[in-house]
Amino acid sequence: MNAEPDSIQIFVPLKLRKKNGRPKIMPPADYLPSEDNTQDPHILRAIGRAWSWRRRMEAGEFSTMQDLANAVGVKDRYIGRQIRLAYLAPEVLRRLVFKREVPAVTLVALADCVELPWCEQAEAVFGGGAREN
Fold first, then answer.
1. Among residues 19, 53, 67, 132, which one has the fewest Cβ atoms lying within 10 Å of its Cβ?
2. CB 51 within 8 A of CB 104
3. For residues 61 and 81, what is the distance between their CA atoms, to the nearest angstrom?
């Protein structure tokens, strides 16, 4: 009689990193988001927060990022990194917010895309796929 095992083992290469003193499971470097078009809520929340901060700064509610950081209870470096999301190209914002497309980059890399010209941002954020009209 051949005894078959009742379970199987699956190896998933994940890494553990500490973030804010807590362990965080990180996906492999070659991980690509699934094709089910599930938008990361952290990205949408970060974009909304960036636009809120931008409006408050432009309205004169705060004169410096340090004042804003003190008011919302975060570090001014965090404000400086995240507020950049309010300056993404309109095409990128439309695809992220309205079409809920999944970016091919992390939230940190998304903020770095602001330095690119608007015409290059969509390709950098969503990969080299076909452009949307």
1. 19
2. no
3. 20
Tokens representing 114 are 């602001």
Query: Which amino acid is located at 19 in the chain?
Result: K
Q: Would you say residue 33 lies in a domain?
A: no
Residue 7 lies in a domain: no
**95 lies in some domain:** yes
Phi first, then psi: what are they for 129, rounded to 5°?
Answer: -70, 180
* Tens-place pLDDT, residues 62-117: 999 999 999 999 999 999 999 999 999 999 998 888 888 888 888 889 999 999 99
pTM greater than the 0.70 cutoff:
no
Containing structural domain, residue 74: 39-126
Sign of the CA dihedral 113, 115, 116, 122? Answer: positive
